[in-house]
Design goal:
The chain is about 5% helix and about 35% strand. By secondary structure, the chain is mostly beta strands. The chain has one domain: OB fold (Dihydrolipoamide Acetyltransferase, E2P), CATH 2.40.50. It has a 6-stranded mixed beta sheet, with no helix packed on it. The chain is globular, with a radius of gyration of 24 Å.
Length: about 130
Amino acid sequence: MLRSVRSAPALGGCSRGSVAAVGGRSNSGAAKPHAVTFVLHGALSHFSAANGSTPGSITLVVSASNHHGAALKGQTLTFALSASSKVVFDSDKKITDGERGLVQVRAPKNTNATTLQTLTPRMVIDQGAASAS
């Protein structure tokens, strides 16, 4: 025979509606946004490489992106680079102002431009000079 338990001494007199909160779990339903990768394409400039613990930087004028960065199109973003940021150069082995490229940054979904610029990019890819159309 099964019985409904409304309160029990082991639960400290909690009602059955609050049992989910026992053990440190919350039943509030507020979830932390999951991380996504922002892939931002555009013109690169003002590149300086990271040197040991001294951070480098890169500026990107966003011309296209994946859907996570769609609201950033047309904005100029500057990122600090660390020694762990992978930088891939084109055939001339340097990033010249105005060359096409992309920056990948991992951040929580719906991150705004201001917050995104405080994060360190995972990768910067130099795709060479912009082609004349």
